Amino acid sequence: MDDVVGYNQTAQTTSPKYRENPTGWDSEEILYLKRIFELRLVVCTLGFVINIILLILQIKIRSFGRTQYVFAMILTISDIIHAADVFGETFVLRKTFKEPAYWFGAIAFASGLLSYLSIVAVAVDRYLALCAIPFKYKQVVTIKRYWLVIAIMFVFSITCSYIFLVSVSYKDLHLTYISLIVSTTLITLTCTVYIRLAYLVSISLRGMKLPVDIKRQRHTQTTRLMIAFATILGANIVFNMPQNFFGVYIVLQPPGNRYNVFKHLSLGNWMYNVQTINTCANPLIFWHQVLVKEIQLPLFSTFCKDSRTPNSQSTISGCLPSAIGGSRSSSV
């Protein structure tokens, strides 16, 4: 969900003129840039580990078999791919100070596009469940069909990435403008679709004529999910767009100041580090907003067991959040 266009300011500023140490750089500047790279490696490692943990927790609650959570699982997978890709790219830069292979950018493009598709898919699923076909949802929407949609999303992301890879020269200055246009277009379309669908879902939730308990449970579950992904979408904008605007700023500089001014290179890499933090932010947002309510914490379940009396009719599920304690049929 991160670098939508897949290639970043680091790759641009280290391409033709940074194959060797630029004239005028001293050892302290070289060391400073290496420290920036090392910090990015740390961020990528944290993002990879956090997303792996989140993926394990999602498997624990069987997200792969629940229609309302399967696209969140795909978002986690896309963040894992992106964190690993940026780690490899940065490792090459840190070691050789040479331009990394183009396929690093292609993978970043595909993972970024996949993350946006996943966010939209969550809103579409809730729209189908609560607005479009609320009474036929379980008959029409099945997990097998959703996995088919996911396969199409993967193929579409890879195809777009390949087209972008073979049709755009990474040494062309127009790449920066293309990057900004692609990023802005994806974010605008995603926000427009998501906000519209979220509005329709909120109206549907208010107009539901269901028993109070079921209505409250469905309202809480859907609201948590929609707010979580709205926050994730906002985080993508905050972390990603400054990097693209800075790329335009670099291109607007005189030719002699584009790539061999140390402050430009260091600032561009700092912005890329900030952008990479998004791989850590996404899983933490989803955990805080949604997953913590879905998982039976050992300490909490122990408390529930200890609180039961021999004659009590209460069960452990009664102590758990409704999404776990209730019936699995409440996946709508």
From TrEMBL:
Domain of life: Eukaryota
SUPFAM superfamilies named in the record: Family A G protein-coupled receptor-like
Cellular compartments annotated: Cell membrane
Key word Membrane present: yes
Chief place of localization: membrane
Species per Swiss-Prot/TrEMBL record: Holothuria leucospilota
Domain G-protein coupled receptors family 1 profile: 50-286
Entries under InterPro entries matching the protein: GPCR_Rhodpsn, GPCR_Rhodpsn_7TM
Region (Disordered) residue spans: 1-20
Protein name from the UniProt record: G-protein coupled receptors family 1 profile domain-containing protein
Transmembrane portions of the chain: 39-57, 69-88, 100-124, 145-165, 177-201, 222-239
Keywords for the protein's UniProt record, in alphabetical order: Cell membrane, G-protein coupled receptor, Glycoprotein, Membrane, Receptor, Transducer, Transmembrane, Transmembrane helix
GO MF terms held by the record: G protein-coupled receptor activity
Taxon lineage: Eukaryota, Metazoa, Echinodermata, Eleutherozoa, Echinozoa
